[in-house]
Amino acid sequence: MTATHAPAPVELDVIPALPPAPEPPRRGRVVLVGTLLMITAGVMLFGGLLAGYFSARDVARAAGEAWPAEETVLPNVPLFMAYLTLLMSSVTAQWSVSAIASGDRRSMYVAIGLTLVLGLAFVNALSFSWGALGLAAGANSYASTVYAVTVTHLLVVIAAHVGFVVVGFRALGGQFSPRNRDLVAAAAAFWHFTTLIGLVIWYCLWFLEGGP
Asked: What are the structural domains, with CATH classification, of the chain?
């Protein structure tokens, strides 16, 4: 009998594995850039409003009128507490950025919640101060300019609240991480802007007019 031999295995060419594809370049920080542009526009807006306030004050004093009217009593203590509360909220806003940067999601939730609560406390304190001021909008030049500045600032604070509410819901959905926190940083930056403008308003409209 003739012995049969199994055919020798055919060696296939081994194709070397391709190197892993490079990670796609990270998109530019569009959110942060957009926030900076909004802040720039806000600075110009409030610069114009405050310039209008000081212009109206100079005109009134040049005409021999009291600014504010002598019967106007500024609620200095409520105003001071209102803007102090806003300053505290800026601290907690920055805390939320630091928390997600270190991966501490629970602290981020607490920081976002405290920021919103302190912001609402500022809104409440400012509304109380308006009532204590006892001036109707449009009653005189002082009332018109004061309400123009402070109501505009209140609307900006509300916009900052909306931004943090969006951040809060997205945080609950687990959409942020130490490498993906641009939206949190942008919301905090806008909040810091509202706080800084608020302190400028407090100094120009209340402190310089006889505040504590």
From this structure: 30-60+76-207 (1.20.120.80)
Report the residue count for the chain: 212
Three-class DSSP category at 208: coil
**Which tens digits make up the pLDDT trace of 43-87?**
999 999 999 999 999 998 898 888 887 778 889 999 999 999 999
Q: How many CB atoms sit inside 10 A of residue 40's CB?
A: 11
Where residue 130 falls (left for φ over 0; alpha for ψ -120 to 50; beta otherwise) is alpha
Neighbours of 126 (CB within 10 A): 22
pTM: 0.82
| Helix runs in 67-140, H state only | 76-101, 105-133
